[in-house]
Design goal:
Structural class of chain B: mainly alpha
CATH topology of chain A: Rossmann fold
Oligomer: heterodimer
Number of domains of chain A: 1
Largest sheet of chain A: 5 strands, parallel
Largest sheet of chain B: 2 strands, antiparallel
Helix content of chain A: 25-40%
Structural class of chain A: alpha/beta
Distance between the termini of chain A: 19 Å
Strand order of the largest sheet of chain B: 1-2
Helix content of chain B: 40-55%
CATH class of chain A: Alpha Beta
Strand content of chain B: under 5%
Shape of chain B: globular
Number of domains of chain B: 2
Strand content of chain A: 15-25%
Order of helices and strands of chain B: HHEEHHHH
Number of helices of chain A: 4
Number of strands of chain B: 2
Radius of gyration of chain B: 21 Å
């Protein structure tokens, strides 16, 4: 997958895990408004990975896009997803959707092991 | 304005919702060493200041420090002298629905940074390295996450509600 990792999610560890799994990862545009990040990701034909569901869903619903992956906090330390869990879930999405996830919005939490 | 009590003390009873009682007691614990009367008195005096300003044709607003005009009135609220002034690395931002503070110069909400640090079990130094922010910014975010716990949880819940609309039936995908 070609993935734009949003700044609120882009720890070095997550980016490294995604890259080592074979994904192409675009680093975040720092300090940049969500709308510009979204536009950048679409220009780069990348899936957006973020915890900011509300703002990015609104952007995704405004037109065609290359996919949006959402991670939500479960308010439960035993269930909240670590970088490792997020990377594993992204792999599962890539397996489940071999043709890509264009125009789809998916919550990653259900793909956790 | 001050919360200096009058010499004679009177007991006042009020029937309030449980949440209001909790809020009053939390405010007293946080700012007035648990003294409920000081919390209530100060809250009422602050309300009085707002009413007085409105009666004089003034508007009571919140604005960023760098937007303040040359002359203005500001209430001195006992117990809150330093509140809001202690953040170096956290800033307020005009956002459509989020009210929590953000890491200065970055598009990372303070609560998100603190939450990720906790989920991963990172030290402040490790989190600072992971997100390339100063250690002091992580420490402030963690401190802020404690005092704004309910606000942060509410904003996480808003994101969760939206995200859960997009949970596919994974069983049918395999």
């Amino acid at each position: 997958m070609r993935i734009y990792v949003d700044e609120d999610t882009a720890s070095d560890q997550l980016i490294a895990r995604l890259r080592s799994a074979g994904h192409t990862v675009l680093g975040p545009l720092r300090g940049t408004a969500d709308g510009r990040c979204w536009h950048h990701a679409q220009t780069e034909r990348a899936v957006v990975l973020t915890t900011n569901a509300r703002d990015f869903v609104a952007l995704a619903e405004s037109g065609a896009h290359h996919g949006l992956l959402l991670v939500y906090r479960e308010n439960d330390p035993t269930r909240d997803m670590t970088a490792g869990a997020i990377a594993t879930a992204v792999d599962r999405v890539a397996e489940a959707y071999p043709a890509g996830i264009s125009d789809q919005i998916l919550a990653l939490n259900v793909f956790r092991s | 304005m001050s919360a200096s009590p009058s010499r004679s003390r009177h007991r006042l009873f009020a029937d309030v919702p449980e949440a209001t009682e909790a809020q009053v007691r939390q405010t007293a614990r946080t700012f007035y060493r648990g003294v409920v009367s000081d919390a209530v008195t100060t809250a009422l005096e602050t309300f009085g200041w707002v009413v007085d300003a409105r009666m004089r044709g003034k508007r009571v607003i919140a604005t960023d420090t760098d937007m303040l005009p040359g002359t203005y009135e500001e209430p001195l609220i006992p117990g809150l002298e330093g509140v809001g002034l202690q953040w170096t690395w956290l800033v307020a931002r005009d956002h459509a629905w989020r009210r929590q503070l953000w890491i200065k110069g970055r598009n990372i909400a303070a609560g998100d940074l603190a939450r990720t640090t906790a989920i991963e079990g990172w030290t402040a130094e490790e989190a600072a390295h992971e997100f390339d922010v100063p250690v002091a910014a992580v420490l402030e975010a963690q401190r802020y996450a404690e005092v704004a716990r309910e606000l942060i949880a509410a904003e996480e819940a808003e994101n969760r509600i939206v995200a859960q609309r997009y949970e596919p039936d994974v069983a049918n995908l395999r």
